[in-house]
Design brief:
Blueprint: H1 5-26, E1 33-34, E2 48-60, E3 67-72, E4 77-82, H2 84-92, E5 104-114, E6 117-122, E7 128-130
């Protein structure tokens, strides 16, 4: 059996189509890794994770444009940053950030490091939900 460019092209095309179909089917199944705060470390920087815990404090940053929320899950505490552009998304969805204080929440954010401390960056208003 002779392998021709046409056969290689057909095999590549079929393989690509199978891969794309697989990605479309399983894209909804992919979710961020659920972790506890004490397990968050430098090896997780730029990873998206989900943490469940209580919002202990909410404060505005020194420039007054960003929010810093402190999440406590019993294993530790971590600061979560909500930047001005994201705060606008909260306002558009009529969500008041202050309402999360002293509530148990499920948070999805990106792990980052600021001044040698691990933090989570919240990207949109769907990234934080009050747990029932």
């Amino acid at each position: 059996m002779e392998i021709t460019d046409e056969k290689i092209f057909k095999i590549a095309l079929i393989t690509t189509l199978i891969g794309l179909i697989g990605m479309i089917i399983f894209a909804g199944e992919i979710s961020p890794k659920e972790v506890i705060i004490k397990d968050i470390d430098r090896g997780m920087i730029d990873e998206e994770v989900t943490v469940t815990g209580n919002i202990d404090t909410i404060q505005k940053s020194s420039n007054g444009k960003n929010y810093i929320l402190t999440l406590n899950d019993g294993s530790g505490r971590i600061n979560m940053m909500i930047f001005e552009s994201t705060i606008t998304k909260f306002a558009e969805n009529e969500i008041n950030i202050e309402n999360f204080e002293n509530k148990k929440v499920i948070v999805t954010g990106t792990v980052t490091e600021f001044k040698s401390t691990m933090e989570l960056i919240i990207h949109d208003s769907n990234s934080i939900k009050i747990e029932n």
